[in-house]
Amino acid sequence: MSSVDTTQVAGLLDGLASGSVEIVDLTQPLSETTPVIKLPAPFANTPGLSRTQISRYDDRGPAWAWYTLTVGEHVGTHLDAPIHWVTGKDGADVASIAPPSLIGPACVIDRTAQTESDAGYLLTIADLEAWEAEHGRIPDRAWVLLRTGWGARPRRGDVSERRRARSADAGSRRACVALAGPRAADLGLRHRDGWDRRGLRGRL
Known about the structure:
With 204 residues, the protein is α+β, with helices and mostly antiparallel strands. The protein has helices at residues 3-18, 112-117, 125-135, 155-166, 170-178, 197-203, and strands spanning 50-58, 61-70, 106-110, 143-147. 30% of the residues lie in helices and 14% in strands.
């Protein structure tokens, strides 16, 4: 590790210790009521979360509690490895992704106000370009985080409103999906091909 890298790591550790660097948990609680994507026939669907009790401080295990969990690998907060899609079938699985590829600068595009006034709001290329005009170009290999405010809304309302949103303009939907993770296309961590600007323009 170079001296520059060492200095950066030391600065991060100092920031964490002093509280000047904040760690934000972006995950959502996973439960039996977590909404699950539903694909149309004839495609197979993933199960949601279910759990079976093995023991809970009883004769089956007097000093411990544990469960058997059954859950689809794409339920709740998750990461798509390249091999998830046929276009990356010869690529890396989750365990093979290089850790440095999972770390990068974060750019937050806040559209909470827009989704509160329009449940079917979908981010577009024009929205992204407007954000860059105000804040500067999104760096290569950056994580682009789309803040919608959906996490604070009731679960049941979310499902129906999101279904209506998914039926809206396909081009806008692709742009929105594309901003769910790293924009660097070479990482392969994406829901569709072409998460970089050139790929998005080719689709719209």
